[in-house]
Amino acid sequence: MCILFFGVGGGVINGATSALISDMSNDDKKIANLNLLGVFFGLGAFCMPIILSTVDQIHYVKVINVVAFLCILLAGIFLLISYPITVEKEKISIQLIPRFFKNRIFLIICFFLFFQSAFEAIMNNWTVSYFIQHLQVDQKQALVALSFLVLGMTLMRILTGGVFRKLSPKALLHIAFVLLFLGGTCLYIKQPSPYYMNTFGLFLIGAGLSPGFPVMLGLTSNMFKETSGTAFSFVMFIALTGNIIINYLTGILIEFFGVTVFVYIIFAMIIFMIALYSYIKNEKKVLT
Question: What are phi and psi of 247, to 5 degrees?
Answer without folding.
Answer: -65, -40
